[in-house]
TrEMBL record:
<dbReference type="InterPro" id="IPR020672">
    <property type="entry name" value="Ribose5P_isomerase_typA_subgr"/>
</dbReference>
<feature type="binding site">
    <location>
        <begin position="29"/>
        <end position="32"/>
    </location>
    <ligand>
        <name>substrate</name>
    </ligand>
</feature>
<dbReference type="Pfam" id="PF06026">
    <property type="entry name" value="Rib_5-P_isom_A"/>
</dbReference>
<feature type="binding site">
    <location>
        <begin position="85"/>
        <end position="88"/>
    </location>
    <ligand>
        <name>substrate</name>
    </ligand>
</feature>
<dbReference type="GO" id="GO:0006014">
    <property type="term" value="P:D-ribose metabolic process"/>
</dbReference>
<comment type="subunit">
    <text>Homodimer.</text>
</comment>
<dbReference type="InterPro" id="IPR004788">
    <property type="entry name" value="Ribose5P_isomerase_type_A"/>
</dbReference>
<feature type="binding site">
    <location>
        <position position="125"/>
    </location>
    <ligand>
        <name>substrate</name>
    </ligand>
</feature>
<dbReference type="InterPro" id="IPR037171">
    <property type="entry name" value="NagB/RpiA_transferase-like"/>
</dbReference>
<dbReference type="GO" id="GO:0004751">
    <property type="term" value="F:ribose-5-phosphate isomerase activity"/>
</dbReference>
<dbReference type="GO" id="GO:0009052">
    <property type="term" value="P:pentose-phosphate shunt, non-oxidative branch"/>
</dbReference>
<feature type="binding site">
    <location>
        <begin position="98"/>
        <end position="101"/>
    </location>
    <ligand>
        <name>substrate</name>
    </ligand>
</feature>
<feature type="active site" description="Proton acceptor">
    <location>
        <position position="107"/>
    </location>
</feature>
<comment type="function">
    <text>Catalyzes the reversible conversion of ribose-5-phosphate to ribulose 5-phosphate.</text>
</comment>
<comment type="similarity">
    <text>Belongs to the ribose 5-phosphate isomerase family.</text>
</comment>
<comment type="pathway">
    <text>Carbohydrate degradation; pentose phosphate pathway; D-ribose 5-phosphate from D-ribulose 5-phosphate (non-oxidative stage): step 1/1.</text>
</comment>
<protein>
    <recommendedName>
        <fullName>Ribose-5-phosphate isomerase A</fullName>
        <ecNumber>5.3.1.6</ecNumber>
    </recommendedName>
</protein>
Length: 228
């Protein structure tokens, strides 16, 4: 029986194989991507590839730079050829919930820019509908976070909590809070995203809808590839 890390590792090689010379690569955030980045660096060095990386978090950028990957700011590129990231949930239409690591805004910027966005996950992340197992993260301004939380709870069958890191509020790389929203029933992700994104003080939601081109899933039976 393979553990979660082994399942994630199974997905990495198929993603790295999609990298080509002179590409701009979007590098995601989280435990799966921390397994991916050394493999990207290894391929660059073995094949002497000219690769530019744009990263969805300060942590990923730090790891990539330590491994001699050329990393630039997102505003220094006009396109992203391939973005690779993990996910917290993947539904049958390859729609996602992301943001467990708190980098959902920067992830969405880069993933939406990408010509091709590939998701890596283990089979535990496959769900029948978004919100089935994982709370929906929403990045919000510090100023009115509690009013946003109350507004969400008064309109939907949802419980919200401000994400904490030990005993202090978690702060994103953008200097904001995260509200983790527990859905108590199946809700339409398109409708809920539209409601949330128009609340004053909401920067972005963890719904990634109609963005993913391919999911590479590590299972006990082997690697399963799902194409959009």
């Amino acid at each position: 029986m393979k553990d979660s890390k082994e399942l994630k590792l199974m997905t990495v090689d198929d993603a790295v194989a999609q990298i080509e010379n002179n590409m701009v690569i979007g590098i995601g955030t989280g435990s799966t991507i921390e397994l991916l980045i050394p493999k990207i660096a290894e391929r660059i060095q073995l094949e002497d590839l000219n690769i530019t990386g744009v990263c969805t978090s300060n942590k990923s950028a730090y790891i990539a730079k330590q491994l001699k990957i050329h990393v630039v700011d997102i505003n220094d590129v006009d396109h992203v050829d391939l973005a690779i990231d993990g996910a917290d949930e993947v539904d049958p239409n390859l729609n996602l919930i992301k943001g467990g690591g708190g980098a959902l805004f920067r992830e969405k910027v880069i993933d939406e820019m990408a010509t091709r966005f590939v998701v890596l996950a283990d089979e535990s992340k496959l769900v029948d509908y978004l919100g089935q197992n994982f709370k929906l993260p929403v990045e919000v301004d510090k100023f009115n976070w509690l009013h946003i939380a109350k507004n969400i709870e008064s309109n939907f069958n949802i419980s919200t909590e401000r994400r904490m890191n030990d005993d202090v509020p978690f702060i994103t790389d953008n200097g904001n809070y995260i509200l983790d929203c527990k859905l108590h029933e199946q809700l339409d992700p398109y409708n809920l995203h539209e409601f949330l994104i128009h609340l004053t003080g909401v920067l972005e939601t963890g719904y990634f809808l109609d963005i993913t081109k391919q999911a590479i899933i590590g299972t006990q039976q082997g690697v399963r590839t799902i194409d959009k």
